Amino acid sequence: MFIKQFGLILILLTITSLFLYAEEVSLLSFTGKVEIKKAGGEWTPVSAGQQISGSDYISTGFGSMARLQAGGMQITLQPLTRIQIDELAEKGNTVSSRVSLQSGRVRAVRTQTTKAQRKLLDFRLSTPVATAAVRGTDFELSANNKLRTYEGLVEFSSKQGTVLSSAGSYSWASISQAPAIPLELAAENWSLSPVAGSIGGITISGAAADILQNLNIPGNGFIESSSMLFILN
Q: What is the C-alpha to C-alpha distance for residues 220 and 201, in angstroms, rounded to an integer?
């Protein structure tokens, strides 16, 4: 009898130690048209200081922005952005957060805390193609699978592979390829994206394409200078 009771106590203690405490996301501030959609509900305007739960959707309209506090990270939604809060939980000294980016662009920055207050973070921001896992403190991910890392280190992964993006670098991913080897942010506006086929976001066609041909640049190759690397499709 004693052995059975002791075993039951051990089981209850194990369950208690594994219990995940639900967290909530706080809406810190917003400008313009920002809406929330609860599971099974309709889109409604947000209110200052509103608490956001797991499975909720948040969207920003044209010229609108929202700033959220989620699991030790401050998340800024740029205009025309939609996210879903997939998971918010705390287990012991670890806070786990999962956020899905459906459109637009999000910047995530680790909240400044004292050493005594700081907890372990398991924060992941995902698109349908790739996931950025926080190892750093400041990064930005867009729905077209482009990652910019401003501080720290971010693990950027897809089904095809994983890269580590350090401070001052950027990377991108596609459905069929592993994330690109990170390049310097300083060269971003001058690089030719192998995914988009563009320079600084401008599609190469017409006269620009003729110029490349006149320079005898092959259809697939690299042009390397002392300060930047151009990748050509």
A: 19
pTM: 0.69
Tens-digit pLDDT profile for residues 135-172: 767 999 999 999 999 998 999 999 999 999 999 999 99
How many domains, in total, are found in the chain? 1
For residues 121 and 90, is the Cβ–Cβ distance under 8 A? no
Strand partners, 172: 146
| 140 inside domain | yes
CATH value at residue 74:
2.60.120.1440
DSSP string, 109-157: EEPP--TTT--EEEEEEE-SS-EEEESSSEEEEETTSEEEEEESEEEEE
pLDDT in tens, 206-222: 444 444 455 444 443 33
Judge whether 167 lies within some domain.
yes
Containing structural domain, residue 127:
18-187
Q: Quick: pLDDT tens for 185-196.
A: 887 754 443 333
Asked if residue 214 is part of any domain, the answer here is no
